[in-house]
Amino acid sequence: MAGRGGGPILVLKDTTKRESGRKVQLGNVEAAKTIADLVRTSLGPCSMLKMLMDPMGGVVMTNDGNAILREIQVEHPAAKAMLDISRAVDEEVGDGTTSVIILAGAMLRAAEKFLKDNMHPTVIIAAYRKALDDAITMSKEELGVSVDVDDRDQVLKIIHSCIGTKLIRAWSDCACSMAYEAVRTVRTEDRGRVEVDIKRYVRVEKVPGGSINDSYAFGGCMLNKDVVHAKMRRRIEKPRVILLDCNLEYKKGESMTNLEISNEADFTRILELEERMVQQMCEDIIRLKPDLVITEKGISDLAQHYLLKNNISALRRTRKTDNNRIARATGATIVNRPDELKESDVGTGCGLFEVRKIGDEYFSFIEQCENPKACTILLRGASKDVLKEVERNLQDALHVARNIMVQPFIVAGGGAFEMALQRGLTEKAKSVAGVQQGPYQAVADALEIIPSTLIQNCGSKPLRVLTELRAKHSQGSTSFGIDGETGKVVDMNSFGVWDALKVRMQAIKTAVETAILLLRIDDIVSGVKKTQGESQ
Questions:
Q1: I need a labelling partner for 245 at 20 to 30 A (CA). Which of 122, 357, 443, 476 fits?
Q2: Which segments of 288-343 does DSSP mark as H helices, in order?
């Protein structure tokens, strides 16, 4: 910027870097395309694994889009936005993290030619929004198929479609049944509203050793704990359970506490008071005749003695989350003070408490519960790396099962849903007037990236197979998609690959909205933070 005398006027500081205009928009498109190309080979049953090494020397091997992007570090702000959408989709629906990145990259790649032709981003954005609204309407009214959530076989087929692209697919029958049983166990209904809280009430315990086929799900809880005293019972049928979140020991001072004692009798008196306090706590517990006491805090040796005398087993220092799950499984109430215990606080819903040794460690099982609204999945496997990847795959399966329970609608998988949307939007594009028609059609064409990627990843020729797929959809056969293992066009109704509507719709909505967000950016200013000298 020039002043009156012709000299430049500096508005921004020398340390500030600014980029603006078309260069920024095209740079954002390139960054998004790079991230999309990074995970593109990780889509479908024939997907490739990525090996990622962290600075500490740890190795992660996975084909999960969110897990890959979570491990890499990027500089470009648009690339960071792409990483965020993968995380957002993973938190919302738990699956489709690779698809959303590929779709977002395709949407921005489609907008690139319009930007180069000097079309204003606002026009492109308006067309993208219109296409998204039409796609949502079409999905709900024409393509979504309702499903009976109590039909085990049908729900297992949908979960199988999710697991079919993962490492765990070799043990898919075992994994699908575990995910289904876990979600059915924790499912609750309140005033007609279905709630499935996987994060809080489904626990996955990984124990190295054995085979993945040895894994199973059960209604109840599993703790990596042994009873506090060697002579306490390790197997109790139909136990009465008390849950505490307080210490069963004398109360210690919160900070440094000093006592001045003038004679020996006072010291003896202090010890007696401490013992009396512990004895009173134990008497309050014993009064309710429990078989098992579980506390989040410590249990002193004296308390262990009183509990053992009354044939009561005890576990200590459990996690808060585990205590909450035990409370939900057994019907017990977590109590803060033993003197406030009532009969209604005792949990009687547990069928069996047993301590078992797996490998070199002891695990406490609380199982065979009457109405356990909490579930544990015990995973066995060859190594920790395998178990971590199996857990990631299983989390996707759990989320798919939850999505079906919450929103019981499905669509054809294998790229059939995206091709059906592409066909519908292409027809609607003919009625879009003015310059918006081009970007509207570009959204439809960008949806073909999913079937195209599935074909490429299994080694087939995209052009020939995609032409055959287009021909099937032009004849009105909207259920035809790609067999991800052979690369051939198949009817998904008979092939049995289905996706949850919620997952597919979330992927498309997030991809288009991210493309709109990045297209709106026309200025990047970096180095705006204060320097160290100024801040002082």
A1: 357
A2: 301-309, 320-330
* One-character DSSP codes across 388-439: HHHHHHHHHHHHHHHHHHHS-EEEETTTHHHHHHHHHHHHHHTT--GGGHHH
Decide the pairing of beta strands 202-208 and 235-237: unpaired
What pLDDT was estimated at residue 534? 47
**CA gap 94, 399 in Å, rounded:** 5
Is the pLDDT at 5 greater than 90? The verdict is no
Note whether 96 and 506 are within 8 A (CB).
yes
DSSP 29: H
Q: Report pLDDT digits (tens) over 363-376.
A: 999 999 888 889 99
pLDDT for residue 278 is more than 70: yes
The single-letter code of the amino acid at 293 is V
pLDDT digits (tens, 9 = 90+) for 346-400: 999 999 999 999 888 899 999 998 888 899 999 988 888 788 888 888 888 888 8
Token pair in block for residue 71: 């491990």
What percent of the chain clears pLDDT 90, i.e. is strictly above it?
Answer: 25
Q: What is the largest CA-CA distance in the chain?
A: 101
- Could you tell me which residues are beta bridge partners of residue 206? 379
Positive or negative torsion for Cα 218, 221, 225, 230: negative
Helix (H, G, I), strand (E, B) or coil at 488: coil
Phi, psi angle pair for 167, to nearest 5°: -60, -30
Strands 498-500 and 523-526: unpaired
Distance CA 166, CA 383 (A): 17
In angstroms, rounded to a whole number, what is the distance separating the alpha carbons of residues 112 and 78? 15
Q: For residue range 61-92, what is the model confidence (pLDDT) as tens digits?
A: 777 777 888 888 888 888 888 888 888 888 88
Positions marked active-site: 64, 97-98, 396
Strand ranges, E, within 40-115: 50-53, 59-62
Of the candidates 117, 64, 120, 57, the one whose C-alpha atom is nearest the C-alpha of residue 94 is 64
